[in-house]
Design a protein that fits this description.
heterodimer; A: mainly beta; Neuraminidase; 5-stranded mixed beta sheet; globular; B: mainly alpha; Cytochrome Bc1 Complex, Chain D, domain 2; 2 domains
Chain lengths: ~400, ~210
Amino acid sequence: MRIHNILGAAVLAAVAGAVFAQAGVTPATPAGAPAWKQGMAAELSQSPLHPFAPHLTGRPSKDLPVSKLRVPDGFKIEVWVDNVPEARSLALGDNGTVFVSNRNLSNVYAIVDNGGKREVKTIMKGMKSPNGVAFDKGTLYVAERHRITRYDGIESKLDNPGEGKVVIDNLDPNSQPGHFWKYLALGPDGKLYFNIGSPQNITMPNYNEASIVRVDPKTGTLENFAQGVRNSVGMAFHPKTKQLWFTEHGRDWMGTDLPNDELNVVKTKGQHFGFPYCHQGDVLDPIFGQHRSCDQFTKPELKLGAHIAPLGMKFYTGKMFPKEYQNSMIIAQHGSWNRDPKHGYNLIRVSVDAKGKVTSHPFVDGFLENAAGDPPMWGRPVDVLQMKDGSILFSDDYNGIIYRVSYAKKAS
Amino acid sequence: MILSRFARPVGARQRSRTAAVQTAAVFVLACLSPTSHAGLEEGRVKAQVCAACHGADGNSVIPGTPSLAGQPRQFIVTALFMFREGRRKNDQMTPFVEKLSNADLNDLAAYFSSQKMAPPAHKTTPERIAEGKAITRAQNCVACHTATLTGQQHIPRIASQRHEYLLSQLRQFRATTRADFDGTMTSATQALSQADIEVLADYLASLAAP
């Protein structure tokens, strides 16, 4: 199995090299290029673009320009809690516990109300990139790189959660760098939906990579749900149609404006969304798209912007926000590194009207300070959570802060 | 011998914490921009324990021990964090880092990042400089480490770093045995030969601050 993969990779590298040569594009360093540089064309080999990294200890909100954050009229934004280093995905327990995950770090946190004061407890340590968290009927599910575990009755044993029970294991047999941290969403069918991303920027994925899969926690049965998805780190089910909507990160090193990151919807199980052949529904990949047509693949519902890095999303179903927010999506955008000038670092609201028209609206801005700066931002939104009162929380992994957005003003 | 040398400064650190708090109180009041200088005075005191190996001003005089002066603040926190988590291991460093708080990490980073890097202790030939420069361009080391190779954000300064340290770290990255924050250096060094690594270490260690 392993030998096959290595051989396969060697053959692919040779094929990719040949295709590059045909297309008149020379890969700079196809073998041994860092994962984040893979697929870079020769003319970009001196590019100064580089990824950003979170402040691993977190930064206190009092040292940050939080007053610069902007929300629509009538809304209010405030720091809900800080000192949650690398706060990533969010899940809400029945008793009000907010569970928070890590990607580069290895913890899961629980934020509880301790006599009117918010307390951050580290309830799990030493996990392998435990980016995915979901809560259902008293159980917390945690998706690490290689497995999903369950913690039944978690809210009554936060100080001693014990060992989780394995739902599914061996999801990461090769332990190679790649888009293998997971986002976890609970389906209306009680199944857990998550991503298995692409191994590199732009390579041929194997049969279960670059996909969205689902597992039945009762049986451990794994099924492919959507294919050709480079990496989705945000997904949610429409409250009415029950269809799965998801954000997707497009490939890097095709320039400032290509390709767009996507918002997609799965209408039929097994649909193919184009990766690695076609990007943003209408741009063929210079390596893998030469003998393909974009018409062979499902197109995105919305192009979000190149490299803007959409992450967590939720449909708004609360009673607090104005009527037009009902059933629309709140999407956190981590912000770009693979373009100049930078954009994103915000939250948007995306609505779908009765005719199916999909429209993006600004929601939270102000993290981006200088689009030409390095770094350009002081915070990076990651995931969204709707609270019982109808307010929204969102996480910022760059600083380890969770913010709350509420609405008070009646329409005037 | 080594144990006793390290034992003394730990005690000194305990005693100096109170002094650090007093100094800090005065300092914070005097300081208009808390984000840029926060922790510098606390860090100066806490850094006394690091001086035996890394130098009082963060310029190491011990072969194989890295210099910390002028390193980006976020890089120092990241490195200390990885030692504390046990992801990066070193028999000498680990005992010092294990008990440090997040505030300690940030104070130490504030101090060492504000120190001036000393002129390089290492010298090489113009030919090696030209060769080394060519490798840093071809591999685009400058994308992350910057044009002056002085680092930024979570990425270290490699210019004027200790020669033996550069050699050992590059060799470990290439052997895939060096803890790596995001896999970038492990991947990047796969394209280097052992001879390239010797040239790079020679060049970088001799490279003065701009």
